[in-house]
Design goal:
Blueprint: H1 13-32, H2 35-43, H3 50-53, E1 55-60, E2 67-68, E3 74-78, H4 81-84, H5 94-101, E4 106-110, E5 118-121, H6 135-153, H7 165-188, E6 194-197, H8 198-211, E7 213-219, H9 233-244, E8 249-253, H10 260-264, H11 270-286, E9 295-300, H12 305-318, E10 324-332, H13 345-365, E11 371-379, H14 394-406, E12 411-415, H15 434-445, E13 446-451, E14 453-457, E15 472-479, E16 491-497, E17 503-507, E18 516-523, E19 534-536, E20 539-540, E21 555-557, E22 563-565, E23 569-575, H16 581-584
Parallel strand pairs: 1-17, 3-4, 3-12, 4-7, 5-6, 7-8, 8-9, 9-10, 10-11, 11-12
Antiparallel strand pairs: 1-14, 2-13, 13-15, 15-16, 16-23, 17-22, 18-19, 18-21, 18-23, 19-20
Keywords: Signal
InterPro entries: GH, Glyco_hydro_79
Family: Belongs to the glycosyl hydrolase 79 family.
C-alpha cells in the first residue's frame, strides 16, 4: 500500500481513542468469553482476541487533498498501426464511439512505436494507401469501405456507422494477416513507413470529437535532414490541413527517443531533441490556429540510465518549451505466461521507483512542471494472450492509477484503447475487456482530488533481511463531480486485495457511521483470474446494445458495517454524505 504522505497530517485524538477502544474491547471479550470458546480457539492454534478479528482500521484525512490532478487523469492511447491493419476505417462504429465516450473526458494520444514512421499525404482517399488484404475479397472489401466513406460524408456533426457483420468479419481476417507482419516488425525492431492521409486524419478526429476526447497527435521525429536536424516539411503540411479544418489538436514529437539507435541506427542526443521541440513550438506559433496549441514531450522510455540522461539534458535545454513532461512505463516482458506474475507486490512497486527517478530530474530543472505517464501498459511487445487481457491484469492497472495519483502524476495514458495485441481495453469484436470495466467504474466514481489514507492493523513481524510488502492496496479520492448520484463532499475509496484470503476493513474516525455504496468487481466464469468477463456485485457486466451501458448498481452497506474484501479482488466504496471539507470546493 502507498506510504503516508510526508506532509503534516492532522489526525485527531479521536483516531487514537478509537483504536484504543477496539483493543480494550478485544481484550475484554477475550477475558469474558466462556472457557469452551477460549479452549476451542487455543485448540485450533489461533490467537484469541483482536488477532482473531483480522481487522484493518481505515481512516482518511478529509480536511485537504494531498494532490489535485487533471480532470482527464485517466486517458487513452491509439497506436498508428490501426492505419496499417485497417481498423482506422472502423472508428466510426457506434459501439466503439460509445465505449470511448464512456471514458470521457480524456485525452486521446495517437502515438506509439510507429509514430516515427508516419508520413502525412494531403490526399483525401485512395485505396493504394490501404493495407493489403486477401485477394479473393480485396476488391469488394475496398468498395465497401469507399461506399461507407461516402455515406459518412453526407452526415452532419458526428459521423457514425453500423458496419455489417460480414464487413467486420472480413476486416478481422485482414487484420489478423497484417498483425503478424506488425508483430514481426516489433520483435525485429525494423519498421516500415505508414502513410497518414487527409482522409485518415478526418476519421481519427471524428472519432475523438464524437467521443468527447481531446486528440494529441504524435509527429515523426525521425524525418531528418542530412545534418541530422529535424525535417519539418511533412509536419507543416499536416498543420496547415488541420488548421484549415479547425481541428483542435495538441501535439507531441517522437516516441521513446532514447531507443532510436537500436531502431534505426541513428541517435538523437538531448541537445538535438531540445532543438527539435523548440523548432516545433516555433512552427506551431507560425500557424495562427495552433499558435496556442499544447506541446508535450519528450516521451522518454522507461527511466533507465540512457533515458534518464536524455531526459536530464532535454529538461536543461527545453524544459520550458513543453506544457508537460511525458515518459512511458510497461511492467513486464510480453513473454511472461504466469498469472502469479501479475500479483507480485514487487512488480507493483516498480512504478513508484520509476516515478521518483523522473520527478527528481524534472524538479531539478523545472520545479512544479506537470509530469504525465505518456504510455502505460501491463506488458510490452504486444502483451500476453489470455493474461494481459484478463482480470489478472487489472491489479496492475488499478494500482498504477492509485500510485500515480498519490505521487502527483497529472495524466496517465493507457496503452491502448483498441488495436492489435493483448494490452487493449476493447477487443476486435468491440467487446469491453476487464480493464475497460475497471476504467469505467474509476471514471464514474473517482475524482481528481487525492486524499491521504491512514491504515492501522496487526502485521507479521518482518524476518531479518526480508521485506514485508502489504498486499492490501488502499487509495482515496473525492468522488467524481461528474457523478450526479453523489453530492459534493462524498469520498471514494478503492481497494486491491492481493491476499489469498478475505480481509475485513473497519472504517474509523470521520468515516465511521456513514452509509457506504459498494462496487465490488470480481472475475466472472470458471476461468478465475484469467476471466475476460467481470461481475459487479454479482451481476455480469455486458453492453445492453451498441449505445447503452449496463447500469452500475451499488450494494448498500449499512452505517458501521465492516467491509469484507474477498481474496484477489478489486472494490470501489463510496462514503455517502460525509460532507468532507476537502471535497466540497
Amino acid at each position: 500500500m502507498p506510504k503516508s504522505s510526508p506532509c503534516a497530517f492532522p489526525w485527531s485524538s479521536l483516531w487514537l481513542a478509537y483504536l484504543a477502544t477496539l483493543v480494550v474491547q478485544s481484550v475484554l471479550s477475550s477475558s469474558y468469553s466462556s472457557s469452551s470458546t477460549y479452549q476451542r480457539s487455543a485448540a485450533d492454534g489461533k490467537r484469541p482476541g483482536f488477532m482473531e478479528r483480522t481487522l484493518v482500521l481505515l481512516d482518511v484525512n478529509t480536511r485537504s487533498p494531498i494532490r489535485v490532478l487533471n480532470d482527464n487523469f485517466l486517458s487513452l492511447q491509439l497506436d498508428p498501426s490501426i492505419i496499417k491493419d485497417g481498423w482506422l476505417d472502423f472508428l466510426s462504429s457506434k459501439r466503439l464511439v460509445t465505449l470511448a465516450r464512456g471514458l470521457s473526458p480524456a485525452f486521446l494520444r495517437f502515438g506509439g512505436k510507429r509514430t516515427d514512421f508516419l508520413q502525412f499525404n494531403n490526399q483525401k482517399n485512395l485505396a493504394k494507401f490501404r493495407g493489403p488484404g486477401p485477394d479473393y475479397y480485396l476488391k469488394n472489401y475496398e468498395d465497401d469501405i469507399v461506399r461507407s466513406d461516402i455515406a459518412l460524408d453526407k452526415q452532419k456533426g458526428c459521423k457514425l456507422a453500423n458496419h455489417p457483420d460480414i464487413m467486420l468479419e472480413l476486416q478481422r481476417e485482414k487484420a489478423a494477416t497484417t498483425q503478424l507482419v506488425l508483430l514481426k516488425e516489433q520483435l525485429s525492431n525494423i519498421y516500415s513507413n505508414i502513410t497518414i492521409t487527409a482522409r485518415s486524419l478526418d476519421k481519427l478526429y471524428n472519432f475523438a470529437d464524437c467521443a468527447g476526447l481531446h486528440l494529441i497527435l504524435g509527429l515523426n521525429a525521425l524525418h531528418r535532414n542530412p545534418d541530422n536536424s529535424w525535417n519539418t516539411s511533412s509536419t507543416l503540411s499536416l498543420l496547415k490541413y488541420g488548421a484549415g479544418k479547425k481541428y483542435n489538436i495538441s501535439w507531441e514529437l517522437g516516441n521513446e527517443p532514447n531507443a532510436y539507435r537500436s531502431m534505426v541506427g541513428r541517435a538523437v542526443n538531448s541537445t538535438q531533441l531540445a532543438q527539435d521541440h523548440t523548432k516545433l513550438r516555433t512552427l506551431l506559433q507560425s500557424v495562427r490556429y495552433y499558435h496556442r496549441a499544447h506541446l508535450y514531450g519528450p516521451n522518454a522510455g522507461r527511466p533507465r540510465k540512457n533515458a534518464i540522461l536524455l531526459l536530464d539534458g532535454f529538461m536543461k535545454n527545453a524544459g520550458s518549451v513543453v506544457d508537460a513532461v511525458t515518459w512511458q512505463h510497461y511492467y513486464m516482458d510480453g513473454r511472461v505466461n504466469k498469472v502469479e506474475d501479475f500479483l507480485k507486490t514487487r512488480l507493483l512497486d516498480t512504478l513508484t521507483e520509476q516515478i521518483n527517478k523522473v520527478t527528481k530530474v524534472v524538479n531539478t530543472h523545472s520545479p512544479g512542471k506537470k509530469v504525465w505517464l505518456g504510455g502505460l501498459g501491463p506488458a510490452w511487445a504486444g502483451g500476453i494472450n489470455n493474461l494481459s487481457d484478463t482480470y489478472a491484469a487489472g491489479f496492475l492497472w488499478v494500482n498504477a492509477l492509485g500510485m500515480a495519483a498519490v505521487q502527483g502524476i497529472d495524466v496517465v495514458l493507457r496503452h491502448s484503447f483498441f488495436d492489435y495485441g493483448y494490452t487493449h481495453l476493447v477487443d476486435q469484436n468491440f467487446s469491453p475487456l476487464p480493464d475497460y470495466w475497471f476504467s469505467l467504474v474509476y471514471k464514474r466514481l473517482v475524482g481528481p482530488r487525492v486524499l491521504a489514507v491512514r491504515v492501522a492493523g496487526l502485521q507479521r513481524k518482518p524476518q531479518p533481511g526480508r521485506v514485508i510488502r502489504d498486499k492490501l492496496q488502499i487509495y482515496a479520492h473525492c468522488t467524481s463531480y461528474y457523478n450526479h448520484n453523489y453530492v459534493r463532499g462524498s469520498i471514494t475509496i478503492y481497494i486491491i486485495n492481493l491476499h489469498r484470503s478475505r480481509k475485513k476493513i473497519k472504517l474509523a474516525g470521520t468515516l465511521r457511521n456513514n452509509i457506504v455504496h459498494q462496487y465490488l468487481l470480481q472475475p466472472y466464469g470458471t476461468d478465475g483470474l484469467r476471466a475476460k468477463y467481470v461481475q459487479l456485485n454479482g451481476e455480469k457486466l455486458l453492453m445492453v446494445d451498441n449505445e447503452t451501458f449496463p447500469e452500475l448498481k451499488p450494494k448498500t452497506l449499512r452505517a458501521g458495517r465492516t467491509i469484507a474484501m474477498p481474496p484477489m479482488t478489486i472494490g470501489f466504496y463510496v462514503i455517502k454524505n460525509i460532507n468532507a471539507y476537502a471535497c466540497r470546493r
